Amino acid sequence: MSQDSNSTPSLQDIIGHAKEYGFVFPSSEIYDGLQAVYDYGQNGVELKNNLKAAWWKAMTQLHENIVGIDAAIFMHPLTWKASGHVDGFNDPMIDNKDSKKRYRADQLLEGKAEEYAAAGQADKGQALLAEMGRLLSAEDLDGVRELIIAEDIKCPVSGTTNWTEVRQFNLMFSTQIGSVAEDSSVIYLRPETAQGIFVNFLNVQKSGRMKVPFGIAQIGKAFRNEIVARQFIFRMREFEQMEMQFFVRPGTEMEWYDKWKETRLKFHQAIGLPADKLKYHDHDKLAHYANAAVDIEYEFPFGFREIEGIHSRTDFDLRNHQELSRKKQQYFDADLDENGKPFGNYIPYVVETSVGADRLFLATFCNAFTREMVGEGDKVKERIYLKLHPALAPIKAAVLPLVKKDGLAEKAQGISDSLKSTFRTVYDDNAAIGKRYTRQDLIGTPYCIAVDYQTMEDDTVTIRHRDSMEQERVAISELKAKIGQAVALERILEEI
């Protein structure tokens, strides 16, 4: 018997479990770590790779008109001038004079709006956010400071409202390129992956004979010198993005924008995120490149937050690159318009889908973390396991001999070896089998294969299912097909 324990995990529960079971570690921990930088452990890297593989296949395998690239992190510095990052990639920064702590002004105001919402004053919170958006759009930083003071927002550390002025802080990391310091030039670590796609637009279009509409997908690292990085891996200085830029005929962008909104929500549900923990959030303040923007948000332990953005970027990027590089970024459209004439040359508009791989990892991990009470009477106890989609689990099956003697260990090792070419399998003969089941539950392994004395007689094994803890007897010859089908990424793609 099992039942939910009605205990929602806190972020500290998630952080502790992620570290203890090899999912995420603080970077350089032996040197006391580096703020807002994390390493993925042996199980974390498998889960993250599975998420990336699911996204990649959902984009490039399910759509014949989407292809992938892998652009370099270093780019010509004029790239970031054309994109607007050199002049406009800033966050409003404010310091508390008493605590000497630095904050993002917009996050302080967003936190106050959340307090209003929690107190049943959602309209007041929305009004506050609207006023903040107006002030930031007008670049009225003095007004932002006055709004913080008027709302009596205190520093969480000092408890005072002794704030400095608000000033803009550019988020790009810069470095030098060149063998001799005096001959070097300043370049930037990319703050996003999209520009690597835009500067390769014509390379891909011409070499692949791509016809608009078509998309270019990419997974890659990006870097932002966040003022206040917080909430574990939700906001980091080094992170990974999964982006797709979809090039469309001008005038059709909103149709594609709506289509990608729907398609991307289906993806998140297909990997196991429940519909009631997902929602759309339309942007009140649009980025400089967008004429429409929406976030897909997931309900983390700290509230609803963005995991993916869908943006209609117009022709902002390609047009700016064309002007600064003096290289035409145009497409000749031979299709006929309503008058029977070719659409001709134009700069395509772009609809972007951009997922934070680390945020998606965190959402998946939070959603999978499950507590339930099992047992009867005075034997009821709490059980914790990761209810991951079988296709995403770091390990698909664990092979466990009941005991090490009488040939059971060798039989189990042979079964494990025979399955490794189809899906990731581990062999474990250390400790009582109940403890081994628990170990696999804690890292989300969907199937445990128990090898016992009956196995030696009839070549059958017991499969134990993670979520229900039910067991079934299966022939060894059926394992590869039975488990292989359940853990294939195909199961996710079928739901999109």
TrEMBL record:
Keywords: Aminoacyl-tRNA synthetase, ATP-binding, Cytoplasm, Ligase, Nucleotide-binding, Protein biosynthesis. InterPro entries: aa-tRNA-synt_IIb (IPR002314), aa-tRNA-synth_II (IPR006195), aa-tRNA-synth_II/BPL/LPL (IPR045864), Anticodon-bd (IPR004154), Anticodon-bd_dom_sf (IPR036621), Gly-tRNA_synthase/POLG2 (IPR027031), Gly_tRNA_ligase_bac (IPR022961), GlyRS-like_core (IPR033731). It is an enzyme of class 6 (ligase). ATP binds at residues 224-226, 234-239, 306-307, 356-359. It is found in: Cytoplasm. Transmembrane segments: none annotated. PANTHER family: DNA POLYMERASE SUBUNIT GAMMA-2, MITOCHONDRIAL, GLYCYL-TRNA SYNTHETASE/DNA POLYMERASE SUBUNIT GAMMA-2. The gene is glyS. Its EC number is 6.1.1.14. Pfam families: HGTP_anticodon (PF03129), tRNA-synt_2b (PF00587). Substrate binds at residues 104, 192, 239-243, 352-356. This is Glycine--tRNA ligase. GO terms for cellular component: cytoplasm; extracellular exosome; microvesicle. Residues 126-394 form the Aminoacyl-transfer RNA synthetases class-II family profile domain. One of its GO terms (molecular function) is ATP binding. Belongs to the class-II aminoacyl-tRNA synthetase family. Its main location: cytoplasm. Homodimer. Catalyzes the attachment of glycine to tRNA(Gly). It catalyses: tRNA(Gly) + glycine + ATP = glycyl-tRNA(Gly) + AMP + diphosphate. It comes from Persicitalea jodogahamensis.
